[in-house]
Each structure stands twice: as structure tokens, then as C-alpha cells.
Design a protein that fits this description.
The structure holds two protein chains of two kinds.
Chain A: E1 5-7, E2 10-14, E3 19-24, E4 31-37, E5 43-50, E6 55-58, E7 61-66, E8 71-76, E9 85-91, E10 100-101, E11 105-110
Parallel strand pairs in A: 2-11
Antiparallel strand pairs in A: 1-3, 3-8, 4-5, 4-9, 6-7, 7-8, 9-10, 9-11
Chain B: E1 5-7, E2 10-13, E3 19-24, E4 31-37, E5 44-50, E6 53-57, E7 64-68, E8 74-78, E9 87-94, E10 103-104, E11 108-112
The chains are: A mainly beta, B mainly beta.
Chain lengths: ~110, ~110
């Protein structure tokens, strides 16, 4: 079963706008990771945020983590056509030796 | 440095056959994990190996098995293939496991007819 749930399932915005995706999970975690996937290819790691961190930045990406609400968000600023992809959050499910993924958010950036 | 590599990239099999998928981790990485991704869903964990020992197993039938070799490469075997085994099979490597970034390969797309 899926640990995380991304919201929305699909998002379509204009190039240059900001995109926000949310992720909720069920169990305690050590870390939460965000990945991008283009057209059913391999996953590309974006950001890892640990349970004792509240916010992390990487270029145009900003991730927040609220462990009290068991939720995380990924913000992509100044979106580009190349950002079109599926985005997944994944947790280590309390230290289990596996990543548990959500269903993903399909992001479409319109030129 | 080379990333995670997987072979083959695509594979077509018929029901009842057996398949072996291969993964080479990033140099220096001792942990390899396998995931199955059915179209339209997120990846599902199958196995994790570290230093040639199985450290985790997902909710998959015994038809699925894996092993890790001394050079840390890994194989995933699936016996008695079913139509529902059609999926993208992803391999991920890391230095130690899920407490750090997982680096994924491009995947092997398996179609079972």
C-alpha cells in the first residue's frame, strides 16, 4: 500500500508560474525525499529533507516538512517547460529499509 | 562517474516464462534496492540488499527473488510470469540505504504477453 499521497494528482500551469505539490504520509519518518520522473523513465532525485528539518532549498525548488501534520510540500518557482514531469514523494517509513512512494503529481507546464 | 545502469532496457516475455533483470550500482555504493512501477502508479518496493544480504522485502510473491554479488551488482528474477508483472522495474543504489539519497537507474520495461 502507498504510504504517501500527493495532491493534486495533476497540475497544469503556464510557464513562469509557480507550482506547488503536497504530500501526506502516515507513519513516522527519518527523512522524506522528492523525485522527478520524465515519461516513465528512471527517477531523478531532487531533495532529501530530514525529520528534524523544516525547510530546504535547491535552486528553484523549496521543500517544507511538517512532521506534526505528517505532510510536505514541493514548490517549483518560475516554472519552465522542462519541468513537465511526474513528481513523487517518498518516505523511509520509520526507518524501514525501503522507500514508500506516493501516487505522484503529474505536472504540465504550458508554454 | 557512471550512474546506475540496468539491463536490458526493454523485454517482452510470455506468461509462464522466467526473466532476469540486472543492475550495476554507482561505484562505491553497497546498497541496491528494486522497485516495480506499474503504469500510472508510484514505485513499489520489492527488495533491498546491502553487503550481499537481504535487508528488506516488500509484499511480493515468492516468484520474485534477487541476489547481490561481491561487486555489489544485483539481479532480480521473476518466475512464472503473469500479465500483471508487466511494469517498469527500477533499481536504486546508495552507500548505506534509505537514510540517504537513492540513485535510480533508467529501469527495465517488461511486457508480459
Amino acid at each position: 500500500s502507498q504510504q504517501g499521497e500527493e495532491d493534486p494528482q495533476a497540475l497544469s500551469i503556464q510557464e513562469g508560474e509557480n507550482a506547488t505539490m503536497n504530500c501526506s504520509y502516515k507513519t513516522s519518518i527519518n527523512n522524506l525525499q522528492w523525485y522527478r520522473q520524465n515519461s516513465g523513465r528512471g527517477l531523478v532525485h531532487l531533495i532529501l529533507i530530514r525529520s528534524n528539518e523544516r525547510e530546504k532549498h535547491s535552486g528553484r525548488l523549496r521543500v517544507t516538512l511538517d512532521t506534526s501534520k505528517k505532510s510536505s510540500s514541493l514548490l517549483i518557482t518560475a516554472s519552465r517547460a522542462a519541468d513537465t514531469a511526474s513528481y513523487f514523494c517518498a518516505t523511509d517509513a520509520g526507518g524501514a529499509q525501503k522507500l514508500v512512494f506516493g501516487q505522484g503529481t503529474r505536472l504540465t507546464i504550458n508554454p | 562517474d557512471a550512474g546506475v545502469t540496468q539491463s536490458p532496457t526493454h523485454l517482452i516475455k510470455t506468461r509462464g516464462q522466467q526473466v532476469t533483470l540486472r543492475c550495476s550500482p554507482i561505484s562505491g555504493h553497497k546498497s541496491v534496492s528494486w522497485y516495480q512501477q506499474v503504469l500510472g502508479q508510484g514505485p513499489q518496493f520489492i527488495f533491498q540488499y546491502y553487503e550481499k544480504e537481504e535487508r528488506g522485502r516488500g509484499n511480493f510473491p515468492d516468484r520474485f527473488s534477487a541476489r547481490q554479488f561481491p561487486n555489489y551488482s544485483s539481479e532480480l528474477n521473476v518466475n512464472a510470469l503473469l500479465l500483471g508483472d508487466s511494469a517498469l522495474y527500477l533499481c536504486a543504489s546508495s552507500s548505506q540505504g534509505t537514510r540517504e539519497t537513492q540513485y535510480f537507474g533508467p529501469g527495465t520495461r517488461l511486457l508480459v504477453l
